[in-house]
């Protein structure tokens, strides 16, 4: 998940800010890239746009947006994690991206030059204590007629097998532990399903909605490592909040071997995208 600066009442960023977590964010970005790219294009992100990316983390969402807006556009990414931003800047240089800038700060209060054609974020609002209030503040950075587009997960703690619907598999066991940890940490685990109300309460009207899930199977599916490494990043918090979780040693391989042996198709919680045009 991406990070943004917490206000005193915001839930703690559950996954931490280690080098390993920055690598996990890059793994996650590769897994979700096709879904997020389709969302951005459907929302109207276009060449030449000036875009604000909220909670940039290691930079992947900003890099994707930079590809969409092209060399005539520009993306400004904001995050509070200076180490993640160092990683993002180094990666941008390696990729030869000159239309991306990263700034450290709280997007709700940081000084930014001018208005933006669009503001975007992925897995950001679930960490806000008051998502509608946060979104209204973020949307104030966008010009009239501009786009506000956010993509969030829907993780239902009361129906784990709807989110990870493969019964008693190790995939499901790990998935339920992840959702339980987020829920006990105060994260808005149903943020995907909350988006319509959050946009409306933020004064943006009823948004257009799009939902997709990452689905896979077989021995080469990248989702096994994503799930195992998410649980690994959460492990200190899982212990703190009393969630029982699978043993981490060799977890990626064990999830994979279990899924392959059962010929399972596995999928994670849906990513729900919402976008609206600012009046």
Write a short abstract of this structure:
This protein has 279 residues and is α/β, with parallel strands linked by helices. Helix content is 42%, strand content 19%. The chain has a single domain (19-277), classed as Vaccinia Virus protein VP39 (Rossmann fold, 3-Layer(aba) Sandwich).
Structure report:
With 279 residues, this protein is α/β, with parallel strands linked by helices. It has a single domain (19-277), classed as Rossmann fold. It is built from nine helices and nine strands. The protein has helices at residues 19-43, 60-69, 82-95, 131-139, 160-163, 170-184, 191-201, 223-240, 251-262; strands at 50-54, 74-79, 100-104, 116-122, 142-153, 208-212, 215-217, 265-267, 271-277. It has a seven-stranded mixed sheet with strand order 3-2-1-4-5-9-6, with helices on both faces. The chain has a two-stranded antiparallel ribbon with strand order 7-8. It is globular, with a radius of gyration of 18 Å. The two termini are 30 Å apart. Mean pLDDT is 90; it is low at 1-8.
The topology string of helices and strands comes to HEHEHEEHEHHHEEHHEE
**What assembly state would you assign to the polypeptide chains in this entry?**
single chain
Largest sheet, if any? 7 strands, mixed
Radius of gyration: 18 Å
Q: What is the CATH topology? A: Rossmann fold
Low-confidence stretches: 1-8
Counting H and I runs of at least 4 residues, what is the number of helices?
A: 9
The CATH class label is Alpha Beta
CATH architectural group: 3-Layer(aba) Sandwich
Structural class: alpha/beta
Shape designation:
globular
């Amino acid at each position: 998940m991406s990070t943004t600066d917490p206000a005193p009442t915001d839930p703690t960023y559950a996954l931490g800010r280690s080098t390993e977590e920055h690598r996990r964010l890059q793994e996650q970005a590769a897994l979700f890239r096709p879904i997020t790219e389709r969302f951005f294009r459907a929302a109207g992100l276009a060449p030449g746009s000036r875009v604000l990316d909220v909670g940039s983390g290691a930079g992947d969402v900003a890099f994707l947006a930079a590809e969409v807006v092209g060399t005539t556009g520009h993306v400004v990414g904001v995050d509070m994690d200076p180490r993640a931003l160092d990683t993002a800047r180094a990666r941008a240089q390696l990729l030869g991206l000159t239309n991306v800038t990263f700034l450290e700060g709280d997007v709700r209060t940081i000084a930014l030059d001018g208005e933006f054609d669009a503001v975007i974020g992925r897995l950001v609002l679930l960490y806000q204590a008051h998502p509608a209030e946060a979104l209204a503040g973020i949307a104030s950075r966008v010009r009239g007629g501009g786009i506000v587009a956010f993509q969030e997960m829907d993780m239902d703690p009361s129906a784990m097998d709807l989110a990870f619907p493969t019964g008693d598999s190790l995939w499901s066991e790990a998935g339920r532990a992840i959702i339980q940890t987020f829920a006990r940490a105060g994260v808005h685990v149903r943020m995907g399903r909350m988006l319509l109300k959050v946009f409306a309460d933020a004064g943006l009207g009823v948004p257009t909605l799009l939902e997709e899930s990452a689905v896979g199977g077989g021995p080469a599916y990248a989702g096994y490592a994503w799930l195992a490494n998410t649980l690994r990043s959460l492990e200190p918090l899982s212990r703190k909040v009393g969630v029982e979780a699978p043993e981490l040693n060799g977890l990626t391989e064990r999830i994979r071997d279990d899924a392959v042996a059962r010929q399972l198709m596995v999928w994670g919680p849906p990513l729900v995208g919402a976008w609206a045009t600012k009046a």
